[in-house]
Backbone:
């Protein structure tokens, strides 16, 4: 994690809270004091929350799990999309649809519909519909894209949610707690810190404050992601470098069998058994010739293949 400077947090206004009349009593441990009827957040607690969140997200993403950024405020939309794209994670910046986590199967169905509409738009099939139908399909495509573009590539439930303003995104927080997904959130003085797993006390309304906090969180996610990719590459190299399960002798034997098969193919594809060869060599009529019919003397090769006495018919 990058070193956090207290001066940078102060310049960004992370320490400014809401008015005293709007505070939440459970935020008392995170409040330093008040000035001009505005609560001041204790930046020491903010640093603790940032360090805990960064360490947790680094360990989480190092295991290959995904993170979803959630923030639909006007001042946070662009930052959410930019930071999520920078670390290769998912985001929700327009509207949190109810059931995004608890009814994920239905959300995936809508995303499949979006892929169908995109395919129709690409190959020109959509132009074959009437004007009214064409307008309806394009409006449906714009709506799905606006709400679900950020989680389009999310194939399974995420490992964590990063939320800005838990009062506004209370549905996302409730769904995450219901399905057991941890929540990392920036909590202001009017929020309940007990609703999330890792609270980061600070200003969740100012643009610069949101920018600083999201940048630190994104850097931690990128660090864990690099660790995951490095481990995956090392495992792949080790898998390719490991010897054959049969060992050197087994490898040589396999090569010998392959060479024998090629030789047999070159000779016409005929592979004779040892017994048949023995019979052909010991017969009195020359190699490859059958004994004369009615001679009364079985060939040597025939004796090897004679049926057992129990299976012979009695006369």
Residues:
């Amino acid at each position: 994690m990058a070193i956090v400077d207290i001066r940078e947090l102060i310049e960004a206004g992370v320490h400014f809270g809401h008015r005293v009349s709007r505070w939440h009593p459970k935020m008392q441990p995170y409040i330093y004091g008040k000035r001009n009827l505005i609560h001041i957040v204790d930046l020491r607690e903010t640093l603790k929350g940032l360090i805990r969140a960064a360490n947790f997200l680094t360990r989480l993403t190092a295991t290959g799990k995904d993170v979803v950024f959630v923030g639909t405020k006007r001042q946070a939309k662009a930052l959410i999309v930019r930071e999520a794209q920078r670390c290769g994670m998912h985001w929700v910046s327009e509207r949190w649809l109810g059931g995004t986590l608890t009814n994920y199967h239905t959300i995936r169905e809508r995303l499949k519909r979006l892929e169908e509409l995109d395919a129709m738009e690409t190959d020109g099939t959509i132009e074959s519909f009437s004007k009214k139908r064409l307008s309806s399909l394009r409006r449906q495509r714009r709506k799905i894209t606006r709400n679900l573009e950020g989680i389009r590539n999310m194939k399974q439930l995420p490992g964590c949610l990063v939320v800005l303003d838990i009062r506004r995104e209370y549905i996302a927080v409730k769904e995450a707690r219901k399905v057991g997904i941890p929540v990392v959130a920036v909590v202001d003085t009017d929020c309940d810190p007990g609703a999330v797993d890792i609270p980061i006390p600070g200003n969740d309304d100012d643009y610069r404050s949101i920018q600083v906090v999201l940048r630190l969180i994104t850097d931690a996610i990128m660090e864990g992601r690099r660790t995951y990719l490095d481990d995956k590459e090392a495992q792949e190299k080790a898998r390719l470098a490991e010897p054959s399960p049969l060992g050197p002798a087994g490898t040589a034997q396999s090569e010998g069998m392959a060479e024998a098969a090629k030789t047999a193919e070159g000779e016409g594809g005929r592979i004779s058994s040892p017994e048949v060869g023995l019979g052909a060599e010991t017969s009195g009529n020359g190699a490859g010739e059958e004994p004369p019919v009615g001679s009364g003397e079985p060939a040597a090769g025939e004796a090897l293949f004679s049926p057992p006495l129990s299976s012979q018919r009695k006369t």
About this structure: The domain at 102-156 is CATH 1.10.287 (Helix Hairpins). Confidence is low (pLDDT under 50) at residues 269-291, 299-306, 308-315. The first helix runs from residue 6 to 12.
